[in-house]
């Protein structure tokens, strides 16, 4: 199972949301004004979310 971590001190949440837009597995979603992790076990480790995050706020661990 993949461990998805978001550093909310770095995350711009509603002002960005790029990670939620590109996640094909819909693991990351924008709820309210922040990103939430939904069903991390479905993550395919494609790392697209980490690539698009301008602040390096997302970390994936297998």
Written account of the structure:
It comes from Methanobacterium bryantii. Keywords: 4Fe-4S, Iron, Iron-sulfur, Metal-binding. One of its GO terms (molecular function) is 4 iron, 4 sulfur cluster binding. This is Ferredoxin. It holds the Pfam family Fer4_9. By secondary structure, the chain is of the alpha+beta class. It has a single domain, classed as 2-Layer Sandwich (Alpha-Beta Plaits). It has 2 helices and 4 strands. It has a two-stranded antiparallel ribbon with strand order 1-4. A hairpin with a 2-residue loop joins β2 and β3. The longest helix has 5 residues. The chain is globular and about 30 Å long.
By CATH, the architecture is named 2-Layer Sandwich
Radius of gyration: 10 Å
Q: What is the share of helical residues? A: 10-25%
Percent of residues in beta strands: 25-35%
CATH domain topology? Alpha-Beta Plaits
Average pLDDT, all residues: 95
Which sequence of SSEs, written as H and E, runs from N to C? EHEEHE
Q: What strand line-up does the widest sheet have?
A: 1-4
Just give the CATH class: Alpha Beta
Number of domains: 1
Largest sheet: 2 strands, antiparallel
Shape: globular
Number of strands: 4
- The DSSP helix count reads 2
Q: Segments where pLDDT lies below 50 for 5+ residues?
A: none
What are the main properties of this structure?
oxidoreductase activity, 4Fe4S_Fe_S_CS, Alpha-Beta Plaits, alpha+beta, 4 strands, 4Fe4S_Fe-S-bd, two-stranded antiparallel sheet, iron-sulfur, globular, 2 helices, 62 residues, two-stranded antiparallel ribbon
């Amino acid at each position: 199972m993949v461990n998805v971590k978001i550093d909310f001190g770095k995350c711009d949440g509603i002002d960005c949301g790029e990670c939620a837009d590109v996640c094909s597995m819909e693991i990351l979603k924008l709820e309210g004004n922040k990103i939430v992790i939904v069903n991390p076990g479905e993550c395919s480790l494609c790392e697209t979310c980490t690539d698009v995050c301008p602040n390096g706020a997302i970390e994936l661990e297998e």
